Amino acid sequence: MTTSTRWTAALVVLATTVAVLATIALLATAPALAAGPVAVVDPSVLRWGYVSAAASAGLAALGAGYAVAQVGTAALGALAEKPELFGRVLVLVGLAEGIAIYGLIVSILILNRLG
Measuring CA to CA, which residue among 69, 62, 60 is closest to residue 103? Predict the structure, then answer.
């Protein structure tokens, strides 16, 4: 394995682990939030909810940044050889940026449930 492949694998494992932990934390707080937004909630529920929202947005942004860096680098190399691939390359970079938007949407949904 090359060094970049090891870093990629480590980042994927880290992101997956944190996403699983954030999901478990959200599921643990789900019974308290089942009735929808409430005025007073147990502080530990709020704490885990905010941690879950921050983790989803932060890790999605890190993953998107890494994906755009990798895809963008390859895209520039491809465009240097074949400029007619610009449209296809632009779609691939846009797909990589979409990861951050998904994380932001999930964090907004979590924060809406917290009230």
Answer: 60
Cα R_g (the chain), whole angstroms? 18
Mind listing the pLDDT tens digit for each residue in 77-99?
Answer: 888 999 898 888 888 888 888 88
- Please give the span between the terminal C-alpha atoms of the chain, in angstroms, as a whole number: 47
State which H helix or E strand residue 60 sits in.
Answer: helix 43-81
CA angle (23, 27, 31) in 5-degree steps: 160
CA distances from 42 to 48, 105, 114 (A): 10, 24, 11
| Nearest C-alpha neighbor of 57 from the set 110, 114, 17 | 110
Rounded to 5°, angle at Cα 15 from 94 and 37: 85
- pTM of the predicted model over 0.70: no
pLDDT tens readout for residues 38-87:
555 677 788 888 888 899 889 888 888 888 888 888 888 888 999 898 88
* Residue 59 tokens, joined: 């890790």
